[in-house]
Fold each of these.
Amino acid sequence: MRLEYISLAWWILFLPLISAAFITLFTLRSKVISSLISIGAIVAGFIMTLVFIHANGIHVNVETTTDWLSVGGLNVDLGLKLDALSLMMTLIVTGVGGAIHIYSYDYMDEDPSKARFFACLSLFTFSMLGIVLANNFLMMFLAWELVGVSSYLLIGFWYEKPSAGDAAKKAFITNRLGDFGFLAGILMVWGLLHSLNFTDLASTMKADAGALGASATIAGLLVFCGAMGKSAQFPLHVWLPDAMEGPTPVSALIHAATMVAAGVYMLCRTLFLYDATALQVISYIGGFTALLAALIAVQQNDIKRIIAYSTLSQLGYMVMAVGLAGPTPAMFHLTTHAFFKALLFLSAGSVIMGMHHEQDIWQMGNLRKKMPVTFWTFLIGALALSGLWPLSGFFSKDSILGQAVEQHNYLLFANGVFIAGLTTFYTFRLFFVVFFGKEKSEAASHAHESSLIITLPLVVLAVFSLIGGLIGIQGIYHYYFSGEAETPAGFAAVLVEPFAHSPLAALLGLLAFAVGLVAAWSQYAKATTDPLPAKLGGLAVAMRDKFYFDELYEATVIRAHDFIASVMGGIDRYLVEGFCIGLIRGGTDLTGRVLRLVQTGNLQTYAFLFVFGVAVLLYLVLGK
Amino acid sequence: MHVGLHHYLTVSILLFCLGLLGVILRRNLLVIYMSLELMLNAANLALVSFSRFNDKLDGQVLVFFIITVAAAEVAVGLALIVALYRKRQSAHVEDLTSLKL
């Protein structure tokens, strides 16, 4: 197959890097130029991706490579893998990312460091595209770490706030833990299969499913560790809610739509690695994370944190889907989630702007009248997230539940349905408290709608959240992963397909939605304070305090780490620096002091020593 | 008494040691300088005696060279001492310790 415009892929990848470098080097003083360069780079990437897909179709499978490094038996190419999976993901990153870039233009307008912000955004875009387009593990790992760095920079963007600095460190270090496992997994794969290229690995594993031997499960789970860190799965989930310290567009771009999805994407990319045991572990970790996060979200009061926990929960869904051997539902949900979660975050950002940077939902209320556009877009996002037919979230969530039924894993299925109900409950709790009822503070009565630059991306994302399930995204993934064409062809057929395919999943999903909605309405439609703590007592407190994971880690991991660090510090201070270095330093010093006595400045002493030396030499040479 | 190589060499060693002691012990630069010449001549004496007792001229040729170089050296050395004296008003080695840290 001859491909047109293959070099476009390189431009898509490197334009954001060029933009980041250019902004940092030359235009850091000009907000406008910097932001336009950054927006231009990502929008150009989006357009080039569309051109490429238009010219070649989406179902290509091609790699374009240049030599990168060759050490011993290790040959690593700098290569891009272009297939339906990476192209779709590129569209999400550049498309949703582009909308968020445009939104940031206004959102960050008053910030003095707007140029730096856009440089970081561009760097992030480059790193994320690196993960998406990489054709081998090493390049992916490199981009993986770059994503971690740019995430660190952006979470800590307001570094003068100590909480932001702490959150950035927490995110980075927690990710490093996962990445350590990821690196070990990559080394293991390299050691066993002698290749890092995804295509080669896939064909090796296809030819011999037991190629990894007895350590297949371990290798798979180690690689999964990387996803666990990036996609914030239990027990490494603690960093994501804190990451909300960053600016809201960052939360939308990195901690909802793209970076946290990288873990799921990586799992789908390396699906060939995982054996049945590994998949089972993955699915249960995903399911547990989803449940845990949904429960915590019910009792949060910060608008961004609620959405953050919701993100955790949905990521758990996706990981669960991968574990249930369903990459299609996982990627499908990833795509629709990117639309509606970015939408929710950006709408929340609009609310926060309207409220003059107030994030406590119990200070808001009745914003429906004050911010009509935000109200409608938020409603669409909330409904899509909750999974109302026929919005995008319904189809993707249903495909995950359907996958659980198909695998006869009714525990995870019930778990999924329960979480769907919880999702609706906490989403509409937020929704009712913020947009309905009475104004709960002075600021809420003076709230105002945001500008067009803010609302336009909201509307675009809202449209995709509405129709995302109907435009054939699932079909593309389905064809990619299974090689079969999608069965329902027409628009109407797609609409009713879930009910025909797995009526149990579809109907229970909708039932959960209805129950959650009614429960939220009954509790929160007119509430001015949260009624739940009185009813649930200790459970509500536990939910509010995030089930004490931070405290638990504080008491165990951090305490243990501090202990080890102090022991190591003692060894360094007293053994290495005190004894070893002290001995050398002291010895040198002493020798120097002694030898200094020799230098008297007296000519005759030198002459004597010289003669003495000659005499000794003569004795040694001739004496015997 | 037959005078042999040993006697010459003994004289040469004595002269050399005298010169060396002078260099190490005397304080006046001029005297040190003369002692240095004494050491050179002790070496000359040894060379000439070897030359004589081995029936070869190599040693004597070497002595001529040494005398020539020593003459040149005296010129330079004395000039230096005079210059030093003019600058410091002293020709004693214990005053010349400015190279010490």
Note: The interface with chain A takes residues 20, 23-25, 32, 93-94, 96-101 of chain B (CB under 8 Å).
Amino acid sequence: MIDRDSPVTEDELHAYVDGQLPADRQEAVAAWLVAHPEQALLVAAWRKQADAIRARYDAVVNEPVPNRLKLDRVMQQGRAGVSGAWKAMAAAAALVAFLAGGTAGWVAHGATTGTPSSFDTITADALEAYRLYVVEVRHPVEVPGNERPHMTQWLTKRLGYQQHIPDLESLGLKLVGGRLLPGPTGAAAAFYMYEGASGERFTIYSAPATSAETALRYKGGDRFAAFYWVDDKHAYVVSGPADRDRLRQVTRAAWEQIDRGAGRRS
Amino acid sequence: MVEATIPALRRYARALTRDSDIADDLVQDTLVRALRSEHLFHGGEVRSWLYTILTNLNRNRLRSLARRPMLSPLEDNDAPDLAGPEAGARDIERALATLVEDQRNALLLVVLEGLSYREVAEVQGVPIGTVMSRLARARAQVKSFLDGERPALRRVK
């Protein structure tokens, strides 16, 4: 539609319609369109589409939000059903409030009990493994990171549930590799290590858990910290240097990939 | 911050599903999942994270629908055909329904929800270039659908 040597690209025409063009290009494109009636018609058609879409659906935002979509209701529905799930959500909500540093009125106090004992055990095990192997230069892992398929297969077999080894390259973390460790309940645990450009190491520890599901928890020390969650009776602990924002970022990426991997299964 | 996004999520879900009950189910599921995981994120990222959850849940819904035999006709249960501006609304709805899912999502996120191309790339988990080509294809398809539809309507009149 647009000549290769055209001073205005088709991407820019879209950005023009969507108001996502840098200010200095806005005028240039507008001027160019005056001299190119065919593209001007196209742009007009796109605008018309956008107007029609907004005309059709924009009114929804002015409708009152149904009660079942109010946050306190969403949580109460959970309580009426599976109480464990509700506790997990309440714990999550409490954590949100905690992390946000504010107070959320709808957080139910006292609902955050969960299973502290298994939390402490597994997190302690994971942090112990982190401390032990993170300083190991020569043999930090049993299987190197370039053997990901083999490692996935091996640890899936040993742990008895599908392993999804997250790819954290987008965060600048390379998979060093993984190893098998004794788990908290006598079962096996998987341990994956990642390394950043400046040598900082993060680990993901996974083992069978006794509780079905918990909200994400944070345990911070002077030098190391960990995020912990349980999904479908599998515990995950992401450990790293005590920089909470960075650790949260890593945890988010790991959680997304593990969650997506688990979703594919069902 | 989650609460403030709910009306917009409902709008996006309505456009995706064309059914207000299914749309609100989708929003509800999104909120449940967000409450379970929101602690991972804060600040401006929450909004695109919510759109990500909703988009993915809708994808799962469409997949499971595709596996089941069709129990209801494709035509939705909205208001019946009317003349005037209502007919235009029906046209755009039908046009959107002809789009490939990823293209429809991209178009709606940009046009209806006002997300930046970068945010859409994040929601869809693809490079910005892919978002741009989805957007371009979506617009071309909607245009050809509407161009084909208009003369037919005129002939009827």
Note: Helices of chain B lie at 2-17, 20-37, 45-67, 85-97, 101-111, 117-124, 128-156.
